[in-house]
Design goal:
Number of strands: 0
Distance between the termini: 66 Å
Structural class: mainly alpha
Helix content: over 70%
Strand content: under 5%
Shape: elongated
Largest sheet: none
Radius of gyration: 36 Å
Number of helices: 19
Oligomer: single chain
Length: 418
């Protein structure tokens, strides 16, 4: 297994600030204890200060030890039951994978949780009126999405996405679909602009390459035609005739050649839907196209573009709702709230897709999570977890210092009263 090399991820600025606050508060309590100890004989109030500072130091040190022991050995000493996260990273990955499997990726569990959920309505409300401001939950979700996509990498997650796309393409018979699309286009006269464009393209191609026709006539016309100069005349007549033919086809909707082309399109639409040989040829061509390295590179490029765009949106959610894209998303959100039929269709599709994905790829996703965490080195998983929750853990240190001081102050007051 290729292990993820350690990265140079710096801790977030908020974590650094809270760590400095917690450590600074502990140092303040130490200084306050020394000052109060020296002044305790001057006035009884210093006894309260000393009791508060002494208990605060004990509470702060205890919580510092507990927080530090999660991620490393305090002061580098190999104390038992410290450096919990790096020592148990494989078990953490397996536990996380089992949690996902048992609570999210079992088909019946997914179906039960999805039943009654109005995914379309929730998405419509969010898109139509996106919440303003960053918010800790929104920012945390963005960071989590970025971490997951970067951790899985383009090869692991991308391989699953590309395999799914290829499988769907292979299992879908495209010939009847193409035939139905072409039939609908012909019925609505939408094929005529395509014919017009083909005729204009052919006329432009003829004008741009008339020298090739002249050269062909010159080379194949024989010595007599070249000697008399009739080869040039023949070439001009041929080019003028082809150009006039294309002009007539462009101007006359009932031109015989246009009617022949439309008849051919109609026959092709019928064969795509009903001719077994035509459908088999299309399937063979589709399989060859999917297996073509150029097609694989195109799918790779699509996935990389989609992944890069999702990363940009995850890093900056506000940017996704700006400009024309934001207007389109808000309009779509309004439609989701007002069109009950569309919302029902989307909800049904999402439920079936999620349940089907859990059934088909649940075990693969569980293995992916477990193997990804196992592939991280101890420093990487320690750094990522500490960056994710370290700021809140520093609040524990601050609270431990203050609560310890209050407990010491209370005990000192009780002692004096007794």
């Amino acid at each position: 297994m290729v292990r993820t090399p350690p990265t140079s991820e710096a801790p977030p600025a908020a974590l650094v600030r809270m760590r400095m606050v917690a450590t600074g508060l502990l140092l303040v309590m130490a200084v306050l204890f020394l000052v109060a100890r020296a002044q305790v004989g001057i006035h009884p109030a210093w006894g309260f200060v000393r009791a508060f500072a002494e208990a605060a130091m004990v509470g702060g040190l205890a919580d510092w030890f507990a927080v530090t022991a999660l991620f490393r050995h305090p002061l580098g000493l190999p104390i038992p039951h410290t450096a919990i996260v790096p020592r148990n990273k494989d078990r953490i990955g397996d536990t996380l994978a089992l949690f996902l499997r048992d609570n999210f990726l079992v088909s019946r569990v997914v179906a039960r949780r999805m039943r009654g959920l109005d995914i379309a309505g929730a998405a419509g409300r969010w898109l139509a009126n996106p919440p303003g401001g960053g918010g800790r939950i929104r920012a945390g979700a963005s960071r989590l999405m970025v971490e997951m996509m970067q951790a899985f990498g383009p090869d692991r997650l991308g391989g699953m996405v590309k395999a799914t796309i290829a499988q769907k393409l292979r299992s879908t018979e495209v010939a009847p679909i193409l035939g139905q699309v072409l039939t609908a286009a012909i019925a609505d006269q939408r094929h005529k602009p395509l014919l017009d464009g083909a005729i204009r393209w052919s006329a432009g191609l003829l004008r741009a390459n008339d020298h090739l026709i002249r050269a062909m006539v010159h080379d194949r016309g024989g010595a007599l035609l070249r000697w008399t100069g009739l080869d040039e005349t023949v070439a001009n007549k041929l080019i003028d005739g082809l150009d006039r033919l294309l002009s007539d086809m462009a101007d006359d909707p009932d031109h015989p050649l246009r009617l022949k082309a439309e008849e051919g399109l109609t026959r092709l639409a019928h064969d795509l839907q009903h001719d077994p040989q035509m459908r088999e040829r299309v399937e063979v061509a589709k399989a060859q196209l999917i297996d073509n390295p150029a097609m694989q590179r195109w799918i790779d490029g699509l996935w990389e573009q989609a992944r890069a765009r999702m990363l940009r949106i995850a890093r900056d959610p506000e940017a996704a709702m700006a400009g024309k894209l934001g207007d389109m998303l808000r309009q779509f959100g309004t439609t989701l709230q007002t069109d009950a039929r569309l919302a029902t269709t989307i909800n049904r599709f999402v439920r079936r897709a999620v349940v089907g994905t859990a059934a088909d790829y649940g075990d693969g996703i569980v293995r992916l999570v477990s193997e990804t965490v196992r592939g991280w080195d101890s420093r990487t998983i320690t750094r990522r977890l500490e960056n994710a929750v370290g700021r809140d853990l520093q609040y524990i240190r601050v609270n431990g210092t203050l609560v310890g001081g209050l407990v010491g102050l209370t005990i000192h007051a009780i002692d004096l009263s007794l």
